[in-house]
Amino acid sequence: MLDEPSLGIAMILVKTIFQKIDKSLGITILLVEQNANLALEVSSHGCVLETGRIILHDQSSALRVNERVKSAYLGGC
């Protein structure tokens, strides 16, 4: 489990940490992260929580293009 690995550290360290999360290892990692862009980059699936409840669950690629996710969590990108 990684809980907010980007919180309060320099961006160069954040990039290093996220580069170490390798999908090809074939292991499951529970990642709790408020930086949705980074989290969706390194994950295959994601859950979106709102007030403690899962409101969306899908493949990361689908979440990245979901209008609700883009508007609320990805800066409208």
Short description:
With 77 residues, this protein is an alpha+beta fold.
List keywords for this structure.
single chain; 77 residues; alpha+beta; two-stranded parallel ribbon; two-stranded antiparallel sheet; 4 helices; 4 strands; 22% strand; globular
Spans with pLDDT under 50 lasting ≥5 residues? none
Average pLDDT level: 89
Radius of gyration, taken over Cα atoms and rounded to an integer in Å: 12 Å
Q: What is the count of DSSP helices, taking H or I runs of 4+ residues?
A: 4
Q: Which strand order does the major sheet show?
A: 1-2
The percent range for helix content is 25-40%
N-to-C SSE string, H for helix and E for strand: EHEHEEHH
Largest sheet: 2 strands, parallel
Distance between the termini: 28 Å
Number of DSSP-assigned strands: 4
Q: Which structural category do the helix and sheet elements fall into?
A: alpha+beta
Shape, per Cα inertia axes? globular
In percent, how much strand structure appears in the residues?
A: 15-25%
